[in-house]
Specification:
GO terms for molecular function: endopeptidase activity; metallopeptidase activity. This protein has one domain (6-250). The relative contact order is 0.16. It contains ten helices and two strands; from the N terminus they run H-H-E-H-H-H-H-E-H-H-H-H. The chain is mostly helical. Strands 1-2 form a two-stranded parallel ribbon.
């Protein structure tokens, strides 16, 4: 019975990853190989939040659809956690992962501190990666300037934060523990996955995101809450996406 349960959970994890960040990791590796066989990585470019139509309202529609459908695997995760609860486990999936508003002030402060802790070294690592030629030029926003550009970029940042922290940290560490894996191994594997789906940006972002994963994983095992991680990740991406969109051209970027 225990073996059957473990097999079910492994299949469940493969389904979730195949529909979300595991799929992204595979594409990222292929994109990295594509870039490396075209030209040196330093000459490559990675554009986030790309425009999907030259027509303003079709572009807006595509952006919102992308954000909405990217969150479906998160809904699937909480569905699987709800199945656990019906089998006798408690509390709810949201409480188990700490994805709720039970302590908004404390989560916000911890998220702000984490964003500062991760953000400044990330900029330095990006600069070093560019200097060493192992990181592509990263353009955080390729959207045209419309009235909806900034709100969509904020939604995109929150989307990335929720998908990554709920699935890669909260959900995977929960499932890895059920596999009987040690906490250090679970954190390392989670961090490797986080780094791997950033490989299309080069090896610098792979290293930086893996380190971020190690820090976030360690903090989660202490707090059992993904909400501070979601706050931190959202802040980091909002600063990058919106800051580039608003000030990039003014300071000669893009």
């Amino acid at each position: 019975m225990l073996l059957a349960s473990t097999r079910r959970l492994r299949a469940e994890v493969l389904i979730v990853l195949g529909l979300s960040l595991g799929q992204s990791a595979v594409y990222s590796v292929v994109q990295l190989l594509d870039k490396m066989t075209r030209a040196p990585l330093a000459q490559g470019t990675s554009t986030l939040n790309q425009s999907q139509s030259p027509r303003e309202y079709f572009d807006l529609t595509y952006q919102l659809l992308d954000i909405a459908f990217a969150l479906v695997p998160v809904v699937l995760v909480f569905y699987f956690l709800a199945v656990d609860r019906r089998s006798g486990e408690s509390p709810s999936g949201f409480a188990r992962l700490g994805f709720n508003f039970a302590r908004p002030g404390r989560d916000a402060l911890q998220g702000l501190g984490l964003a500062a802790l991760i953000g400044i070294p990330s900029l330095a690592l990006y600069a070093v990666g560019r200097a060493l030629g192992i990181t592509t030029a990263i353009i955080p926003s390729g959207l045209d300037t419309y009235w909806w550009t900034v709100p969509v970029l904020i939604l995109s940042a929150v989307r990335h934060a929720i998908v990554e922290e709920v699935i890669v940290v909260g959900y995977l560490l929960d499932r890895f523990a059920k596999f009987g894996w040690s906490t250090p191994l679970a954190i390392v594997l989670s961090s490797l996955l986080r780094g791997s789906y950033h490989l299309y940006q080069g090896f610098g972002p792979f290293i930086g995101n893996m380190v971020m994963g190690l820090v976030f994983g360690w903090i989660y095992t202490r707090t059992k809450r993904v909400m501070p991680l979601v706050v931190a990740h959202s802040l980091l991406d909002i600063v990058a996406f919106v800051g580039f969109s608003v000030f990039g051209k003014a300071i000669g970027l893009g």
